[in-house]
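Sanity check

After download, print the first record. It should look like this:
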Amino acid sequence: MSIVIARPARCAILLLFLFLGLALVAGGPALAQDIAGRAGGVAVSADEVKAWLGGLPDAERTALAADPDALARAVRTYMAQRLLLKAARDEGFDTRPEVAARLARARDSLLMDLFLQSRDGVAAAAPSDAEVRALYEASKAKLVEPLRYRLAQVFIAAPAGQASSTKLDDVIAKLKARRPTTGATSETGFAAVAKAYSDSKIEAARGGEIGWLAEPSIAPEIRAALKDLKPGGVTAPVRLANGWHIVRLMEMKPPGTTSVPFDTVKGQLATQLKRQRIDNARQDFVTSLIGKDGITLDEEALKAIAAKMQ
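Expected C-alpha cells:
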C-alpha cells in the first residue's frame, strides 16, 4: 500500500470517539499472550485490535491486512490515541461544560448519520450496468486520463509532532552523497538508499518504487512538491501525518485527450451513481420531515439573538 496516496479523512473526529470511546480497562487484566501492545501503562488486547479493525471501512481494512508494516503503524497510532484519550479523561477534560457540549453535538451528528444510513434501503443497491453505461455516455467528455506520475520514495515513519529524525538526516546525507555533480540523484542511487532505509518494506524491496499514480490520488503536499520537478528529480522531505516522504519523480505522462474505456471507470461511476441516489433519498426524507409548510422563522427573534452575540 502506497503511503503517498491521499486518503479521505471524512468524519475523523467522530470516528475517533466512535472507535476509541470504549473504557480503557474492561474487566480483569488480559492474559499476557492476548496483549497486542503496551504503551504508557495501557495494554491493548488482540481482541480489541480486531474489534477496532472491524469498524474500519472495508477498503482500508483490506489494505492494512495486505501490508504488515502499514498495519503496525496503524496500531501504533491507535495506541497513541488511546493514551491521549486516557490523559483527557484523567484530567476530567470531557466533563468541562464547553467540551461536553461539543461532544454532545458530535454524538448527535453521528447519530443522525447512522440513522440516515439505516434508511438508505433501495437507494443503496448497486445500479444496473445500463444505468452505469448511461452515466458514462453522459460524462465521456470529462473522462480523460489525468496527469500521471511514476514515483519512488524513501519513507521515514514518525509520530505526529516529532520535529526531527536522525534517520532522516542520514537518508538526506546518503542521497546527497550519491547525487552526481551533473544532475539529480541517480535511479540506482535512490533505490539503494530506499532499500536500506525506507520504513515501507514493500516499497523498499522494490527500491522505493510506488508505481504509476494519477495526480488526484496523491496527497496535496506531495503534489505541490512534484509540481516543478523534472524526471529524475527528488523532493525535499515532505512531512505528512505518518512521517517524512522523500519522493523521486521517475516518469510522467501528460493528461489524455480521449475518454478512458468504460471498463476502466465502471466501478467508479457505479459508486458515484449510488452516492447520488443515497443523497437524493436522504434529502427527500428530510424534506418529508419538514413538511409542506416548510420551516418558519421569527426574523425579529433572530435579529435579537444576533445583537446579543455582537
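If your output differs, re-run the checksum step. Summary of this record's structure: Residues 65 and 71 are 7 Å apart (CA to CA).
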